[in-house]
Amino acid sequence: EAKRQGRGIFVKYALSMRDTLEERTLIENDLGRALEKGELSISYQPIVDGVDGHTRCLEALMRWNHPTRGEVSPEIFVPVAEDALLIDKLGAWLLRTACQDAAAWDKSIKLTVNVSALQLSSGVFLPTVIEALAYSGLEPERLVLELTESVVLEMDEEVERLARSLNELGVTFALDDFGRGYSSLNYIEKMQFSMIKIDRDFVQAAAAGSQKSLAVVAAIVSLAESLGIDVTAEGIEGIEQADAMRALGCSCFQGFHFGRPEPLQQAPLAMTA
Ligand code: C2E
Ligand code: MG
Ligand code: MG
Ligand code: MG
């Protein structure tokens, strides 16, 4: 009986593996043509000041409107783009387009762009950034690259040099989804961060009263304070969460309460008067 059950589970598992593979192949084929077919776009989500609520940054988030599947999440298609070696092409398009958009915003508003490990190690990233900045005329100080800890931890010497070159241009980094599960912090002194973004799960758990999450948020805030950089609480969905994070000393907020990711036409905050 136990054996049969085990086999059943195995068959089910094997089937769902095959489904996933087919799904990925389908998505991969379509993603290769998505850019040319105009299916990709960028939504922007504000990161607001904790004191007066004004927009400090807009985060560029890639969107794919598939002709039959509708909106496909970047959490699904970005990993596929990486496997299919499409991420450099899509990333270059996003950087160039977002820098062009940002060049028309009020100069007090920065642009943040998500960058994956593969993009950093591909060898074309630095020229891609330089080209996007030159083409758009965006001041390098207004460009912030969001990296997750896993990206930073995978860095080798070559990527460290790349980070330094970008810092020398004036570009800085934001540490995205911070708190998700790494503990070594030596990368903090190897490159220039201008912001730490506390992962949504911690923010929401802390605001709900979890003592452990409160302790983690407090520790991140004091780390950011000692580094003299901003700390953003991600995933703020209600006023109580904003109040709780303000009380803990977060300097910036991001989340549906302050604004959902929207196409630029619908994010009038971003435009110069
Ligand atoms: P992320 O950079 O941490 O972006 C935040 C995600 O949380 C976004 O999902 C956003 O829509 C969502 N979010 C924002 N506020 C709230 C809130 O209050 N509540 C909840 N429940 N969710 C909120 P999205 O746009 O689906 O992006 C998911 C992830 O995909 C991003 O996480 C980022 O890691 C990645 N991604 C998006 N665009 C790009 C890109 O252009 N390049 C790369 N490499 N990765 C990207
Ligand atoms: Mg991000
Ligand atoms: Mg994040
Ligand atoms: Mg995230």
Automatic annotation (TrEMBL):
<feature type="domain" description="EAL">
    <location>
        <begin position="24"/>
        <end position="273"/>
    </location>
</feature>
<protein>
    <submittedName>
        <fullName>EAL domain-containing protein</fullName>
    </submittedName>
</protein>
